[in-house]
Amino acid sequence: MACAYNRTGNPDLRLALFGAGQKLLLKTNDFYANEGAFAAALDKIFRTTAYSTHVRTAFYDQLAAGTYYDAVSDTHNMTTAMYIQAKRDLYISQPNGAAWELGLSLYDAWSVGAPTALWADAVKISLEQIVLGEESDVLGLAGALYGLASAGIECDPLSGPFAAADNLQGLADILASYQIPSSGGFPFQYDVVEGGSEFLQETAYAARALNAVDRARFFTAIQHANAYIVSVQLATGGWENSVGDLLGERNVITSDCLTALEMTMPKSGDLEPDGRVDLRDLGILSQNWNRSNCGTCNNADINGDHTVDLVDLLLLSENWMTK
Questions:
Q1: Which of 88, 85, 105, 28 is nearest to 59 (CA)?
Q2: Cβ neighbour number for residue 162 with a 10 Å cutoff
Q3: Boundaries of every domain in the chain
Q4: pTM (2 decimals)?
Q5: pLDDT, tens digit, for every residue of 210-221?
Q6: 126: which residues sit within 8 A by CB, 6+ positions away?
Q7: Secondary structure element (H or E) that encloses residue 292, with its range
Q8: Taking a C-beta distance cutoff of 8 angstroms, is the pair 204, 259 a contact?
Q9: Could you give the angle at which helices 95-111 and 137-150 cross, rounded to 10 degrees?
């Protein structure tokens, strides 16, 4: 919903987001780890820190102190390590899913400024335990990579299927190699790369992961992934997980696709991004002026040519003060 609002500026969506935010502020013991990113998104929209602060202090800080009561599982004195283990236990028979889930959880903790060390360690372990050739191997790699790269945490796998990679860039190179050349989509399993094997969730998270690691290096791959996502959007505006999926349109897949497009295809000049092109964005561009070979340069390299220059300023000016 936050991504849809950032794209459209629809006042009804803003009102709905405000209501959802009020409910979030009332939470005390029934948090989910994926609410960190939502809190951060609300902060950007409403120009506050209240949502992130609440999630951090009422959830993450209490986990860190071992004083959190988790009403979902009826567990007293839950710690961060206990919460992480509970998440891992959900995927005992599907280790690839654990890497994805914990990667997103790391991103959520980082989004609200919570401690990330234990989350990052769990992601690295799960990354080494991915089983290639089984379901969700691509999604597991993408989720883990997205969380680590977003939080700025380097990774050199010591074992497992990605031990040959020395860092995040090496892991991203592997992920990019799974892209299906004929369409730009990503498959459910790494070794199924013919056309017609694309899955939208894998494609959306792969685009987000590559963007987080190095937008400039993977700019073409990200563009192709986004083009595929847009090409299979349903007439209703939503998405299936794969073309002709018997389950049909699914809200969670639509959310994943919208989030990927919002994060990796921001409006030209919306560098923050918060759905507006204003002085905050001009400030980001000025801080990175004349920088080159700096990845995304904090999104200031709008045209992806590895340099922040007059071209980027002109692109920003095209949408100046728009929503």
A1: 28
A2: 21
A3: 1-78, 81-86+116-264, 279-318
A4: 0.83
A5: 999 998 789 889
A6: 88, 95, 98, 99, 102, 103, 140, 144
A7: none
A8: yes
A9: 20
